[in-house]
Design a protein that fits this description.
Layout (H helix, E strand, L loop, with lengths): L3 H6 L1 H11 L5 H38 L2 H37 L19 E6 L5 H4 L6 H8 L2 E2 H7 L6 E2 L2 H19 L3 E3 L4 E3 H7 L30 E3 L3 H7 L4 E4 L5 E10 L18 E11 L4 H19 L3 E5 L11 E9 L4 E10 L3 H6 L1 E4 L7 E3 L1 E9 H11 L7 E2 L13 E2 L1
Parallel strand pairs: 4-8, 7-13
Antiparallel strand pairs: 1-10, 2-3, 5-6, 8-9, 9-15, 10-11, 11-12, 12-15, 13-14, 16-17
This protein binds one RNA strand of 93 nucleotides through α3 and α4.
Length: 441
RNA sequence: GGAGAACUGGCCGAGUGGUUGAAGGCGCGCGCCUGCUAAGCGCGUAUACGGUUUAGAGCCGUAUCGAGGGUUCAAAUCCCUCGUUCUCCGCCA
């Protein structure tokens, strides 16, 4: 969420930022509502002050036994009361509108981010590793959606039988490889000082609001209830509604929601494995084959809570931590800095890590690391205090990054490590996690 | 899923319609006293928003006693709905 005060005082900067993102968020609508709101507040409050003072007097008169005087005063206050009720109604209407507007405003891109319209304007920052030249090796590489089923470790058909399309079943060495990836990744993060968590994969509306998934992206989420099940509450949220989490970012970031942390505790570095659930409602027809875009996938997530002044350095560290996983797995990758037009809703700056995928003959996103600065902190009320440096409490900064998306990593491994005979060599770092298995055949 | 009890400031805890933003205690901060330690004494100790101010401090106002709504001139106190916790019952990996 943006700081209302900042928007009020820097409307041109916000306008430019929204434009750079390709967002049609209406700064002027906000300013108009904000002005109305700020006009009505003193009015209501001074009337309330009058009422409170008069009520006190009535109390005093009653005590003195002056009943008639008290009754007269009551009648007088009655008219004030009506005016207050009227203004109050106006205020809560405007408040709701302001809240909704602020809740649907995307974060402001950091000044360092390249201005651009979309994917084509992203900036490649580095490459690591060299993709294998299968032509030199004399065979045509198979895509993971052919290779996996051929090896009997990936089964799309049975996934459809059990659920529907865009689900995956893994078996035998495939299931083991997936589990190995999870343990390998988490161990790497533990070595780097992250703390491991195990989390619910159903979360409530407050949690999804804090991360920025609600209210704008409800269509991307699986829900436990339909609208007709319960009482509709304010904000269109169904009573008792839970959502399948699209990423552990949502829950990891909300762990300290409505808490005030001690500055000494920061930075907090958290990691968690969870399955992730996405409707992919808007992605019909994209990446329809294989396990690149599915409704349920596994991910090991990293989240950091930092002091504001440390967050951009923390983003570099976190991105490197994500890259380290791919380096240890021997997967060629490149790092992309997303331009303003391609960044996610909550992010001020995002690096994507893309792994080489022979089936796409291209790099494909496997990780996304973002600094959300105080955007999620404001939504989730995440604060810290540091009495030696300032009075009271301040919003901290939140960061999140995949480390890594296990399904896409799985695909990258079997494609990049495939052999001419259709077998797949297990990356060395994973063998200890697979009871020593060297080759999947 | 059913029944009962509870939910007050950092913590404990008083408070069933009228100077209660909230007694008292603990904790914490500042000061005093005491030749160490311990004890004692005094003062202070919520947050958000709005106004005032160049800014801060200060001052004024409003809101906040689980959340939301209602009754009333006036609600921590009365009513309704919801949430959470605890106890008992049911079900269950």
């Amino acid at each position: 969420m943006l700081d209302a005060k900042f928007v009020r005082e820097n409307p041109d900067a916000v306008r430019a930022a929204m434009k750079s993102r390709g967002s049609n968020w209406d700064v002027d609508e906000f300013l108009a509502l904000d002005e109305k709101r700020r006009a009505i507040i003193p009015e209501v409050e001074s009337l309330q002050a009058q009422r409170n003072a008069a009520s006190k007097q009535i109390g005093a008169l009653m005590k003195e036994g002056k009943r008639d005087a008290a009754e007269a005063a009551k009648a007088e206050v009655g008219t004030i009361k009506d005016t207050i009720a009227d203004l109050d109604a106006q205020r809560s209407e405007i408040d709701a509108q302001v809240r909704h507007l602020l809740a649907t405003a995307p974060n402001l891109p950091d000044a360092s981010v390249t201005i651009g319209g979309g994917e084509e304007d992203n900036v490649e920052l580095k490459r690591w590793g060299t993709p294998r030249d299968f032509a030199v090796e004399g065979f045509e590489p198979q895509a993971h959606w052919d290779l996996g089923p051929a090896l009997g470790i990936v089964d799309f058909e049975r996934a459809v039988k059990l659920a529907e399309s865009r689900f995956v079943v893994l078996s035998g060495a495939g299931a083991a490889l997936n589990r190995a990836l999870m343990n390998f990744m988490i161990d790497q993060h533990l070595n780097a000082g992250y703390k491991e968590w195990w989390l619910p994969v159903l979360a409530n509306a407050d949690t999804l609001f804090g991360s920025g998934n609600l209210p704008k992206f409800e269509d991307d989420l699986y829900k436990t209830k339909t609208e007709s099940d319960g009482n509709a509450l304010e904000g269109g949220v169904t009573a008792g509604q839970l959502y399948l989490t699209p990423t552990a970012e949502t829950t990891l970031t909300s762990l300290h929601r409505d808490e005030v942390l001690e500055g000494k505790q920061l930075p907090l570095r958290y990691t968690a494995y969870t399955p992730c659930f996405r409707e992919e409602a808007g992605s019909a027809g994209r990446d329809t084959r294989g396990m690149i875009r599915v409704h349920q996938f596994d991910k090991v997530e990293m989240v950091k809570l930092t002091r504001p002044e440390d967050s951009f350095e923390a983003l570099e560290d976190m991105t490197q931590q994500g890259e380290k996983i791919l380096e240890l797995l021997g997967l060629p990758y490149r790092r992309i800095e997303l331009c303003t037009g391609d960044m996610g809703f909550s992010s001020a700056k995002t690096y994507d890590i893309e792994a080489w995928l022979p089936s796409y003959n291209d790099y494909k996103e496997i990780s996304s690391c973002s600094n959300c600065v105080d955007f999620q902190a404001r939504r989730a009320n995440l604060k810290y205090r540091d009495p030696e440096n300032f009075k009271g409490s301040r919003y901290l900064h939140t960061l999140n990054g995949s480390g890594q998306a296990m399904g896409r990593c799985f695909a990258a491994i079997i494609e990049n490590y495939q052999n001419a005979d259709g077998s797949v060599t297990v990356p060395e770092v994973l063998r200890p996690y697979m009871r020593g298995l060297e080759v999947i055949r």
